[in-house]
Amino acid sequence: MEVNYFTFYDISIALFWLIVLLLISNSRKTKIENIEARKYYFLNVLFKFFFSIGFAVIYLIYYGGGDTTAYWDGALTLNNLFMKSPSMYIEHLFSEPTQSLFSAHFDSDTGYPPGWIYREPAAWFICKLASIISFFTFKSYFAGTLFFAFLSAMASWRIFELILKLNTHKTGVAAWCLLFIPSVSFWCTGVSKDTVVFICILNILYYVFDIMVVGNKISLKNILILFICIYLIYQVRTFILAGIALPLFMSFGARITKRYERNFFAKLFFRSLILFGGFFLFIQFFASNFAESMVNEAQVVQQDFIQNETYTGKRYEITNTDASPQGLLRAVPESIFYGVYRPFIWESLTPTLILNGLESLLLMILLLRFVFNKNLFVKIRMTRKEEILVFAFIFSLFIAFMAGFTSILFGVLVRIRAPLLPFFFLVLTTRFVSNKDKIEMKED
Question: What distance, in Å, lies between the first and last C-alpha atoms of the chain?
Fold first, then answer.
């Protein structure tokens, strides 16, 4: 179905919701007790709005459309289906996409969803989510984009607050790592799979750590949000769940070890158990059918992008593409490096990749500063002792491997790897801790 996204009606609704969401943000900002952190709240929302609109405009004008508009087109057909028959809409909302449902529910009055979106269950699931938002935005694509951006801003803020509670970084550094990475705000704020996955990752991490580390009480609301986020990731990119589960296991292993810091033998036992247990799980993971199925799923994601003409462009090659357990292990170093550091600056001279190229250059500089520093071992000990940094490091490596090994296209790589960037920046900036923390680590 042909849709004009730049009508006066569409823009007016978007401006209305922009004002409403900014008023909500300003109201929430005044309730933040941490004065130093408070100044970043509104800026975070504006930053996400700016890049989400930029994402939408670039894909509409420069590329003439893409998966983001296809998701919204599918959402509008579902919106129309609800007006035709609410029962049909509910049935479609909770059913897998099939040809029989397609023929029975959609017609010239509702419009027909994009075929390549409907045939891919994960992509069609995004249309279902977007259709719910489309009711509130009165079908305005730009207003829907602002909704997704606002949810992304709120999820980012929760992790920012978590980092401040754990006191692993200075406030300004934490804000830069978690709130103001341009490419993350570009790829993970619009109407897309990447936005849904990013929001869910951050919410899962926040609520798990809020209960297990910060020590807040378990509430029905928090449990419900956790299950919803897990369900959404399962529907959209299942392999991300393994990328969350393994780092959480290792991070809470680090938490157990911290309890026995004064008992040398107990500390040695638990560290050895975690180290060898993690290594065993690492080997078993690559030898499992689950790993093979995840690689296959990631390759389906890759094909999903490749089939969309928007994402034709520069490619890269992995030396070893063997998906056997031995082949996956051999591909780990190269895949992780590509997943974190490519495209290089000279490979990213396009509107959608230039930010990634600049950030890759910055990541290389930070890595060199991290390694070639007199406090290297202090920083390593800092990372090892902090549950959130253990999670950040292992999660970054896992997502980097999956992105680097399966993407092939730079346009796919930068989207899949976007969620790891805030966490990898956190790891590389662990030197920015308080003097009190440094003294405590040196005395250990």
Answer: 65
